[in-house]
């Protein structure tokens, strides 16, 4: 049997509020599964996710587990 390789993941935490931010930045947070300060999400480490994190890097941080 072939074993499935576990995909790399990235954990991100929102630490700043999206209040007074452009709508596309709020939509990016929702796309990442974040909408409140202190929320964390573990997502697949893909170029698309990295790009989204880069767009809102002033509101989220990558958490080392």
Descriptive report:
- With 65 residues, this protein is of the alpha+beta class.
- It has helices spanning 23-31, 47-55; strands spanning 9-14, 40-44, 60-63.
- It has two helices and three strands.
- The chain has a three-stranded antiparallel sheet with strand order 2-1-3, with no helix packed on it.
- The radius of gyration is 13 Å and the shape is globular.
- The model has no long low-confidence stretch (mean pLDDT 92).
Q: Say which CATH homologous superfamily is assigned.
A: Ribosomal protein L30/L7
Count of runs of 4 or more consecutive helical residues: 2
Which CATH top level class fits?
Alpha Beta
Strand fraction band? 15-25%
Mean residue pLDDT: 92
CATH topology: Ribosomal Protein L30, Chain: A
Q: How would you write the strand order of the largest sheet? A: 2-1-3
Shape label: globular
Model regions low in confidence, pLDDT < 50 over at least 5 residues: none
Total strands: 3
Alpha carbon gyration radius: 13 Å
Q: What CATH architecture label applies?
A: 2-Layer Sandwich
Biggest pleated sheet: 3 strands, antiparallel
Number of domains: 1
How do the helices and strands follow one another from N- to C-terminus? EHEHE
**Structural class category:** alpha+beta
- Between the first and last Cα atoms, what is the distance in angstroms? 31 Å
Question: What is the strand and helix layout of this fold?
Answer:
Layout lengths: L8 E6 L8 H9 L8 E5 L2 H9 L4 E4 L2
Which key phrases capture this entry?
3-stranded antiparallel sheet; single chain; Ribosomal Protein L30, Chain: A; about 60 residues; alpha+beta
């Amino acid at each position: 049997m072939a074993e499935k390789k576990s995909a790399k993941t990235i954990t991100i935490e929102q630490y700043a509020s999206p209040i007074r931010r452009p709508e596309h930045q709020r939509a990016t947070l929702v796309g990442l599964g974040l909408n409140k300060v202190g929320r964390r999400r573990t997502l697949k480490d893909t170029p698309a996710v990295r790009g989204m994190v880069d767009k809102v890097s002033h509101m989220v941080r990558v958490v080392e587990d």
